[in-house]
Amino acid sequence: MAGHYDGPLDMPIELIYPFDDLPDGSTIIDIGGGNGQNVIRLVKSHPQLVAIVQDHVSVISNAENMVKESYGEEIVGRITWEAHDYYAQQPRKGADIYLLSHVLMDNNDE
């Protein structure tokens, strides 16, 4: 599986996947993306990327406002925020990358 990593949890995602190789307009969907910390870093350092952050509605509304206050329009304009329960079927098809980071750790094997 491309991009699978079993090492230390603090390893930057940029070191485990070649984001520079993705073409202009490539889309990353960060499922359970919280305040967008992963995609903010990625879209700042890879101008060809756009991102969608999906999480619970309360998380998304707070995160979107925080990011709007903290980052310029260049970054904010490249991130879309969506309410989504990651247990439900993924409504977005055809993204280049589906990112799940630190979201499955609290679930059992069933």
From TrEMBL:
The keyword Transferase applies. InterPro entries: COMT-like, COMT_C, SAM-dependent_MTases_sf. One of its GO terms (biological process) is methylation. GO terms for molecular function: O-methyltransferase activity. Residues 22-110 form the O-methyltransferase C-terminal domain. Keywords: Methyltransferase, S-adenosyl-L-methionine, Transferase. Pfam families: Methyltransf_2 (PF00891). This is O-methyltransferase C-terminal domain-containing protein. It comes from Trichophyton rubrum (strain ATCC MYA-4607 / CBS 118892) (Athlete's foot fungus).
